[in-house]
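Late entry, NAP complex.
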Amino acid sequence: MKVFGLFGEKLSHSLSPTIHSMLYKALGLEATYSLYEIQPEMLKDAVQGIKALSISGVNVTIPYKVKVMSYLDNITDEAHRIGAINTIRNRGNMLEGFNTDYIGFGRMLRKNSIVTKKKTAVVLGTGGAAKSVVTYLEDNGVYEIYIISRNPNQIDTFDRSKYRIVDYTSLKSLKHADLLINCTPCGMYPKIDCSPIDEKDITKFNAVIDLIYNPSNTLLMKHAKDNNITTVNGLYMLVAQAAASVEIWNDLTIKEDIMDEIYQHLKNSLDK
Ligand code: NAP
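Prediction complete; structure with ligand written out below:
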């Protein structure tokens, strides 16, 4: 029986155990997935515990995606460029860090036929998810990226020679962009009345992608739909990043229809 799990600080609402147990069942894997709530001062010990307890792999979530990198033996080039990891593989007692949010975001775009090549993108937020999204967009031919922050002058985690890092008022002078991607928690349950931008500014975009999946229809997405703009939420990305972790841990490839089935199951329960 292989042991996998999730490292984070507060995990009681996590959908990951459901997604992972559905993946293991579909693949016929004998495995368990446990939640490990870790206090900040215990993170290093917890990472060493992966080796001591022969845990085969863990996912890592808020607030440890950056800090945990310094305790690993190796980090993929991609995760290094992103500056955050969300997956650790224990192979031969060597811990390697990967970023499957990057992979999940790409799979979600492809699933929804959203093209990035030569497009202009506006990314809201500057945290771990924004880093994965910006790196993916850059690697996939986006023409120009605007990164919107509440405090743009304090941001030192993005290369200012490559991206325009501006505040929310600057967004008002932007005339048009192809993609708007919300990488902030604004609109996430229980703060469902929050929209990161005004409804009148949403008409500037051709597609709105919200990484939030609970609720499945955020206020930002409702405004976009009211203006006949294509919308996508973060649920497929969540399933696809979990599937990518399982692929990395077990050296296998997961068929798209398995991800589709899990996505549909979760969508039905979240829409209830
Ligand atoms: P994070 O590291 O905490 O970063 C969030 C960023 O959003 C912050 O850096 C901040 O940027 C901005 N922000 C925070 N609170 C805000 C508010 N009230 N209003 C406007 N902006 C705010 O979080 P994260 O890991 O990047 O996650 C961001 C969101 O993406 C969450 O909702 C998370 O659930 C979602 N997510 C989804 C998936 C998926 O698979 N679907 C994967 C990863 C993350 P500034 O201070 O620069 O404004």
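The mean pLDDT is 96. Will revisit in the morning.
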